[in-house]
DNA sequence: AGCCAGGCTACCG
DNA sequence: CGGTAGCATGGC
């Protein structure tokens, strides 16, 4: 046992299972784990990972639904779609010019995979896919054990004095993965914990780590 | 009215 | 290398 795992258990007790990644085909129900995912679901996770960059998932759902009602929530349909139509569909998620470019670049990469699982480095080579998006795609799309770090994760760990402000993505990812591997030996259980933990951090982060000063009322300060 | 959102790239020193 | 402007809409 260690403090990181204690944090996970506490968040799980408070918020319960989050069931990420929500898939439109499942009506966005919670706890819609599919293992393994089919190609449409994998692609939807990829699309959502790009669309949610610096954007709330509520807005992403609107964009995905715009594509869905056009019957275009699939790789080939988006590729063939008029670019202005695509921009208009994803407008609710913001940065629609950038994200349209990112999506079209990603589709070229994705189709070249031919159904195979991309490496993390290969994903990072795609324009528009940074570390968090790559981990998001691997963790939630491909069910790979890659911890996803986001702004809330960093704020939380700074507030709880696990890291300092200049910690890099890699450092934080390594802290989380190393700590959890100490406690969880079963690979499938470890995967599910990575998936839940990030989602739980977002749930908690929205409440206590959105507005400065961060961490007011955060119960985790009494846990670690 | 202003700040924030489940980031990333390009460009600067 | 580290730091930062720009990207855009929507919710509160």
Task: Write up this protein.
By secondary structure, the chain is mostly helical. The protein folds into 2 domains: 96 residues; 103 residues, Hypothetical protein, domain 2 (Endonuclease III, domain 1, Orthogonal Bundle). It is built from 11 helices and no strands. The radius of gyration is 18 Å and the shape is globular. The structure holds a DNA duplex (13 and 12 nucleotides).
- SSE pattern, N- to C-terminal: HHHHHHHHHHH
Count of helical regions = 11
Strand content: under 5%
Question: Which fold name is given in CATH as the topology of the largest domain?
Answer: Endonuclease III, domain 1
Structural class: mainly alpha
CATH class of the largest domain: Mainly Alpha
- Please compute the radius of gyration using only Cα atoms: 18 Å
Largest sheet: none
Integer tally of domains: 2
CATH level-four homologous superfamily name of the largest domain: Hypothetical protein, domain 2
Helix content: 55-70%
Report low-confidence residues grouped into runs of 5 or more.
Answer: none
Q: pLDDT average, as an integer?
A: 94
Q: From the 3D coordinates, which CATH architecture of the largest domain would you assign?
A: Orthogonal Bundle
Distance between the termini: 12 Å
- Would you count the extended β strands for me? 0
Backbone shape:
globular
């Amino acid at each position: 046992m260690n403090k990181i795992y204690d944090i996970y258990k506490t968040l799980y007790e408070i918020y319960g299972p989050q069931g990420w990644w929500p898939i439109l085909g499942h009506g966005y129900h919670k706890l819609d784990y599919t293992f393994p995912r089919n190609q449409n679901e994998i692609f939807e996770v990829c699309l959502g990972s790009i669309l949610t960059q610096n954007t709330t998932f509520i807005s992403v759902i609107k964009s995905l639904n715009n594509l869905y009602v056009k019957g275009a929530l699939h790789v080939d349909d988006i590729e063939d779609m008029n670019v202005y139509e695509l921009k208009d569909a994803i407008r609710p998620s913001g940065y629609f010019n950038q994200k349209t470019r990112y999506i079209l670049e990603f589709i070229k990469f994705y189709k070249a995979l031919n159904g195979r699982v991309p490496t993390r480095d290969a994903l990072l080579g795609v324009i528009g896919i940074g570390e968090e998006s790559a981990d998001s795609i691997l963790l939630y799309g491909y069910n790979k054990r890659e911890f996803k770090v986001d702004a809330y994760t960093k704020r939380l760990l700074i507030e709880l004095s696990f890291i300092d402000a200049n910690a890099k993505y890699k450092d934080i990812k390594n802290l989380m993965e190393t700590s959890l591997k100490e406690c969880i030996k079963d690979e499938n259980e470890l995967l599910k914990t990575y998936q839940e933990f990030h989602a739980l951090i977002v749930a908690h982060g929205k409440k206590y780590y959105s507005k400065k000063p961060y961490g007011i009322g955060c119960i985790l300060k009494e846990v670690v």
